[in-house]
Amino acid sequence: MAGASTKSRAAGSANAVTADLVAVLVAVTEGEPKIMTIANDGALPSGPFEFAHRSLQTGLRAWVEAQTGHPLGYVEQLYTFADRGRAGDAKSPHSISISYLGLTREDKVGQGFEAHWSGWYEYFPWEDRRAGLPASLAKTLASRLRAWAKSAETTGLQRQRWQRAAITFGLDDREWNEELVLQRYELLYEAGLIPEAVRDGAAATTVIPGRPMTGDHRRILATGIARLRAKIKYRPVVFELMPAEFTLLQLQRSVEALAGRLVHKQNFRRLIEQQQLVEETGAIAADTVGRPAKLFRFRHGVLAERAIAGTKLPLSRT
Amino acid sequence: MAGASTKSRAAGSANAVTADLVAVLVAVTEGEPKIMTIANDGALPSGPFEFAHRSLQTGLRAWVEAQTGHPLGYVEQLYTFADRGRAGDAKSPHSISISYLGLTREDKVGQGFEAHWSGWYEYFPWEDRRAGLPASLAKTLASRLRAWAKSAETTGLQRQRWQRAAITFGLDDREWNEELVLQRYELLYEAGLIPEAVRDGAAATTVIPGRPMTGDHRRILATGIARLRAKIKYRPVVFELMPAEFTLLQLQRSVEALAGRLVHKQNFRRLIEQQQLVEETGAIAADTVGRPAKLFRFRHGVLAERAIAGTKLPLSRT
DNA sequence: GTGGCTTATACTTATCCTGAGCATAATCGA
DNA sequence: TCGATTATGCTCAGGATAAGTATAAGCCAC
User: Which residues form the NrtR DNA-binding winged helix domain (chains A, B) (predicted)?
Assistant: First the structure.
């Protein structure tokens, strides 16, 4: 890729950096969202982008297979982070992390790897609102956030902080917005309420429940969850996480697991069916309590038929 | 950022890469979307990520100001590309491009720079459907695409190609989807119908109108346009491109310029007003034909009041 | 100043989408 | 057979949307 300015070329290897490829690999099993972790569940699969890699994605696939034994299916790029907090340190070169979201199923678990499937709500307990928040966590969160807001210098800043906390966490009778995963993580980091913040130099305080990860990995995971929660609403990506055949309730449970909240059953079915995303297989689910459900499969045809995109503009049809 | 696996660290500088920062800097002037270009309008502002840069964004800001004299305001990351087509060449290290979308206004044009504002439809003539497509372009496009489809080996492949072309370009009575900017560009590239493809080794054919750029820059621009077209529908980002005060028609013209298609006037107004995105300034537009319009300003308060996000799931309120 | 041109803005109508609840069906086990 | 459990069909009100009609308020030529 030719750099546009002549200056770019002149820079040469003096400005070399190292690039890490990081994967948020997601599966949903029995209504619980899982992510692939390594290093005692404290890190995401990752490795450096090397000469030999033909592209970023092939490099990522190589690392994930090597570390987890799990082949990558659906993959999309998430975000590129640079290391932060090492500003003046000109000795060690910059390191950047290029992160990806991968969707798959939790079968074919590779043997002989130190990789595991971990529930993603272990890392973000406050993101699971399906059964409402545990009263204890809700209380802790609210009081810690309020303390953080109060600790600001001026009353103006105090109000700003509290407003931000209230919006992202749905306090003061505001609606909970499940997509703000990253914003909530960033706020907790700034407020020094999670271990990573303390590790990076924040004043040591009592910390909120939720398992930490190395480096930026929990931030990357938050980015992945946010992306996925947004995307299931306008692209049929849930099906990447489903088995070939499934009941509508299983599908609903998967969506709820990802979104972290419950949906209205009948309306969910209407939505799915009117969009013609699925078709009956003819078979019936066995081994269930209650009335047996029809089995469905994803209609792969829809991907070819229409390019699904949401219009929110009053486009004129002329 | 600690690499997760021990392997990552061991790699060291042998796997060093160079990272370029590339900016798609957008403004809208008199109903025409513009982008900042350098190098005789054949490239986007860009430069390498260096030691001295404290973060990716500060590096980008430094380069853009140095090359264009224009300060960056609103910025968001677009995508990270690796150079492609240089697989085996282990001599020159990998080079990756981290691209950003920036939104501003076309005032304060820096003097003494080789930078210009260029209309973005010069680079993508087929993306402007506000006045319908010029009949000539429509014809050329359709026939070239059909020829490309026909040139496939098997009839199965031929049908696949045509279906893809028809979906992305809204042929065969399908709806035009203005968000598929990147998909259309990629298809034209694969079909060898644009200069960049020929440059990169495609068989030389007659090429479609539309000005090329160096390297991947037109692909990056396509990514930026697509992102912006999608985003104006669910986030109030248009206002970054508007002057402090504006009439509703000016706002509408800006949206239409970005989307490349017309919207229904009355419904557009209702949409804007019901969302309480703007408020009257009390002043009236001067210097106009027809009945003078009220001037409005963006209500910055909305950003604080609500976290605007689209729900497309039948969430239950219990 | 009047008629015609242009744009702004208010109002109407039919249709569709959405959230929510009610009712019934099918299966199992006590 | 009853009760528990899940599946599935149906209704209904309210709101959002697409599209069109009508009126208001300026300017300009004459």
Answer: 238-298
The helix (H) or strand (E) run that includes residue A23 is strand A18-29
CB B127, CB B225: distance < 8 Å: yes
Annotate B182-227 with three-state secondary structure.
HHHHHHHHHCCCCHHHHHCCCCCCCCCCCCCCCCCHHHHHHHHHHH
Band of the pLDDT at A14, cuts 50, 70, 90?
A: low
B249 contact to strand C (CB, 7 A limit): yes
**Residue A309 or B83, more confident:** B83
pLDDT tens-digit readout, A254-282: 999 999 999 999 999 999 998 899 999 99
pLDDT tops 90 at residue B145: yes
Residue B194's nearest CA partner among B177, B213, B176 is: B213
Structural domains in chain A, CATH included, are 17-122 (3.90.79.10), 131-210 (no CATH), 242-305 (1.10.10.10)
**Average pLDDT for residues A142-167, to the nearest whole number?**
95
Q: What is the DSSP string of A79-102?
A: EEEE--S--S--SSPPEEEEEEEE
For B:45-84, CB contacts with A below 8 A are 45-56, 63, 67, 77, 79-84
| Bases in strand C with any atom closer than 7 Å to a protein CB | 5-12, 18-22, 25-28
Distance B32 CA to D29 C1' (A): 32
SS3 label, residue B243: coil
CA distance A7 to chain B (A): 7
A54 Cβ within 7 A of any nucleic strand D atom: no
User: What average pLDDT does chain B have?
Assistant: 87
In whole angstroms, give the CA distance from residue A91 to residue A148.
Answer: 36
